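Continuing from the previous page...

OK, I double-checked the sequence for Helix-turn-helix transcriptional regulator against my notes and this is the correct one:
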Amino acid sequence: MYRIFEELCTKNNVTPYKVCKETGLTTSTISNWKAGRYVPKQDKMQKIADYFGVSLEYLTTGTDGGDDANNKSKLRDARDIAADINGLLNKLGNKGDGPALYNGNPLTDESAELLRENLKISLRQLMLINKENNENGK
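Thanks. Re-ran it with the corrected sequence; updated structure tokens here:
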């Protein structure tokens, strides 16, 4: 399973440290997983899967319930969504460009996570709309 995590890191051009930082996991969790001392609990695995926009099944097995074109397209869309969200949140969190504020206060970690989840929903909806428009020749 760690091999799949490494592949996802490579494909998304991120380090395990960055994944830990952005998901709230400890680096020791990933280190112990890599060393084979234990497998992270399901809630931690789900954070990693969500970060990369893949299913828990894909993270643990390397497959997503089938190899048909539809599943591959969904997986690619999920990775694109994750990359877009991470890019947006990195820009929002970049203090050099100014902190992300709500009502004049910097976003808390909880608020940033809420924003992340809402961005996922919005981007998924936009992808569906774009797909429909492309299929209908618009």
